Fold Gram-positive cocci surface proteins LPxTG domain-containing protein.
Amino acid sequence: MLHMQTLLAALGAVALAPSAGPSGAVTPDTVTAGNPVTFSVVCAEGVHEADVAGAPLGLSARIPMEPGKTSGVFSVTVNIPADTQTGTFNVSIDCGDGTSAVVQLVVSPAGGVPTGGGATSRPTNHALMAAGGGLLVIGAAGAFALRRRAV
């Protein structure tokens, strides 16, 4: 029983211990090229600077972040360059104390998802519609004539 109490006490201490590293986020986490995103991070208390590694996205190598109202909190809003390739990017947010958080940003294609054609992808072709309607009328008339002949 004493072993179980020791185990529970140890688990409680681990649960209450501060996290090992900073916590980062990107909002929105999916964006089309040419639009803004906001990177944010919560570093250890007392950290006075943080930056984003922007090179994977075609931005400056180091983008300084603005401090928030709370110690250790930083954020920055950037526009993703219009020529950024689509894909998933792991972006590092580095705190001034040498710790880092990695966030995932998905750059999606501009416009709709490229899924192919479809009936609404081209304007209506009235000549084809008239020809198809004419064939239906001829077919219906032929069926009527054959049915009448069989009776």
